[in-house]
Amino acid sequence: MTDIASVSIARPLSEVAEELRSSFAEYGFAVIRDHGISADLIARAEKMSKVFFALPEDVKRAYILKDGGGARGYTPFGTEKAKDAKVHDLKEFWHVGRDLPEGHELSEFMAPNIWPSEVDGFRETFETLYAAFEEAGGRVLRAVALGLGLEEGFFDATVKDGNSVMRLLRYPPLEGAEAEGAIRAAAHGDINTITLLLGAEEAGLELLKADGEWLAIDPPEGALVVNIGDMLDRLTNGRLVSTTHRVVNPKGDAAYRARYSMPFFLHFRPDYVIETLPSCADDDSPEPISSHDFLLQRLREINLA
Description:
Elements: E1 6-8, H1 13-26, E2 29-33, H2 39-53, H3 57-61, E3 73-75, E4 92-96, H4 122-147, H5 156-159, E5 165-171, E6 183-188, E7 194-198, E8 205-208, E9 214-216, E10 224-228, H6 230-235, E11 245-248, E12 259-266, E13 273-274, E14 289-290, H7 291-301
Parallel strand pairs: 1-2
Antiparallel strand pairs: 2-10, 3-4, 4-5, 5-12, 6-11, 7-10, 7-12, 8-9, 8-11, 13-14
């Protein structure tokens, strides 16, 4: 993992912007340290995630929102699949999104959250974590803006009240000899602007390099793994790349344990038009499209809309 940037965003952003830009341009990934999300909050959230997933199946399934596209509440095993994949991924997850005040201009795009009554403190913990993820993501985007030669605050308005989603994710333990090296999440790219991932210390996350080789990502404990999503790739006309990645089962004892992680999918506002930045434009620039229309197009491709 020597070539992927590992930077502290507690440093002045002007000092890390080029290192991040270069890593995002070549790999689509970087490791972010000193991100400001407290270790105590992370530990509390991880514990509550495990408590929720340990609930009986019928209790969890009561939180499936019919026709909700998986945007809020519980999504059981065998629902989501990677684009063009023949089989569904082996995972279950819970989504927390943005709660907007009644009458907000974007409320038609974002359903209210639902919360499991069986886990004490669940709502308070994950509302706090959502806000912390958003703050860390905003700081990463300010560094990205500087790396692209934009004003530092360029992305602030584009993501304000964006349709960002936090996912609590559980991959079950596998059994038998086939467990070692099995694919838990098939190769895919992320739809959104950037993804911030907690829980990648457990071996298994790999990205596909330009030369066709898979590269394992092994961040230090508590660090965030951040990757470029399709929306930012489109905005920059591929200058920053949304890289194909996957989750494979590790070797040895870890292959037979459940895996937990918490990605935060940071999105543009639904009404933001993704139009190639002038500095990145050429004859092959994609057509402008609203963030919301792009999201719906991609959700249909992965069986969530």
